[in-house]
Specification:
The chain is of the alpha+beta class. It has 2 helices and 4 strands; from the N terminus they run E-E-H-E-E-H.
Length: 85
Amino acid sequence: QQHRQITSANAMTDDSGKVYLLVFVSFESPVNSEKAVNDLIGKEYIGKTLYVGRALKKSERVAELTRRFEQLKMDLINRYQGVNL
């Protein structure tokens, strides 16, 4: 499918110029961006399942990882609550 009004697209490369399967795409409008994410997430491309999501600022990424870690920690605590080890 086509997602119009892309303002930029950058592929990551290594020192030899080989392209990684990592691409950053900017859209003109948030609506187009959201539509692209919804349409492409989980799709396959050259035998790989795509991960598509909004790029996060470092502070947002750190906050999300911290939230996930705390949730995993609480799940483990709750799993063994009242169990005699």
